Amino acid sequence: MPARQKRLIFCAAGVLSLACALGAAAAVGTQLWVRGSVLCSTGALLVNASGPELHKFIGDIQYGLFSGQRVRQCGLGGRPFQFSFFPDLLRIIPASIHVSVILFCTVLIVFALVAAGFFMFNAFGSPYETLHGPVGLYLWSFISCSCGCLIMILFSSEVKIHHLSEKIANFKEGTFTFKTHSEQFADSFWTILVCSLVHFLNALLIRFAGFEFPFSKSKDSGTITGAVDLMY
Q1: Pair type for strands 78-84 and 178-185
Q2: Of 3, 229, 9, 232, the residue nearest 129 (C-alpha)
Q3: Taking Cα atoms as reference points, which of 134, 132, 122 lies closest to residue 210?
Q4: Could you point out which of 3, 41, 106, 221 has its C-alpha 20 to 30 Å from the C-alpha of 97?
Q5: In angstroms, rounded to a whole number, what is the distance separating the alpha carbons of residues 134 and 42?
Q6: Could you state, in chain order, the average pLDDT of each consecutive group of 10 residues for the chain (232 residues)?
Q7: Where are the transmembrane segments (predicted)?
């Protein structure tokens, strides 16, 4: 592939990696990971609510990795309530999973920035073999993609298996019991999915530029291709 096309491919991959790093950093700080509604089951049972009356006992909830808010509805109007995971909710949520999600988000942001830097270095610099050349680009992209997948798996298990929304809704509730009425992942969660797909696409772009996957055997054993092919 001509040097100019390689440069364009690496520039595009670098810009995508940088956009992913910025998007993931913005996603971590928002409350837009989960949106849903919770039902005050105790109040609904007391008045035997059904149909339109049931809406008087359904409040909204949304949260991110650090904080969130919910509206407490028990038949007498909504009452907003702000909450923070640290340190308020650490006793009732699966703290190890939650901290792991935040840790992998940090790793994703760092390695997305590293990948962006090395893509630009390969586009305009004179890289040498191993971590500065195509092997390094594959490595940074693989780590970033893997971290994105782990974030989605861990956070999904925390929400769906450990019933995170229900635990938050029942936090400091002595008389009333709340149950999840509906919940769906919001924009920040899907941003992490997009980041994972972009880093997978970056690995395909490296291959499209003419560099074999690491540890793959070359068809022509007599020809040794290294990062010198990237030198312009």
Answers
A1: unpaired
A2: 229
A3: 134
A4: 41
A5: 60
A6: 74 90 94 93 81 84 94 80 87 92 96 90 65 74 93 96 92 86 94 94 80 53 43 39
A7: 97-123, 135-155, 189-209
**Residues 6+ positions from 226 with CB-CB distance below 8 Å:** 129, 133
Can you tell me the distance from the alpha carbon of 124 to that of 44, in angstroms, rounded to the nearest whole number?
A: 65
Angle between helices 187-208 and 95-124 (to 10 degrees): 40
Phi, psi of 160, rounded to the nearest 5 degrees: -85, -45
Closest CA to 178 of 81, 97, 104, 85: 81
Residues contacting 232, CB < 8 A, separation 6+: 3, 7, 126
CA angle at residue 86 from 67 to 84, to 5 degrees?
30
What are 148's two structure tokens?
């994105």
| pLDDT at residue 212 in the model | 60
